[in-house]
Write the structure tokens for this entry.
Amino acid sequence: MTNNFPKNLKYLRITNGYTQDEIAKKVNKDYSTIGKWELGQRNPSTFDLLTIANMFNVSVRDIVEKDLSTSEHAVEVKLEEYKELFDKDKKLTDVQKEFIFNTISEQHKK
């Protein structure tokens, strides 16, 4: 079994706009510990792993086993970003937004 936790932690942290220091504060660790986790130099405790997985709304199994940067999860994150952008754009009609969103969704699935 491949341990993708280091890569996934960094991916999820950056994708969600957190610094290592912000993650460290959320799990009551030093920022250097987060850096070591991301480099694969250390592993989190089971409790810390659960906390991190819950923080990013992913399962422990997924954060450890999957490559979340290339999975369906990554597509879902991107689609949510598009939705937020569309909601802010007052020039597009709802029909136009839906068409663009559906087109992008189909492209991501390919």
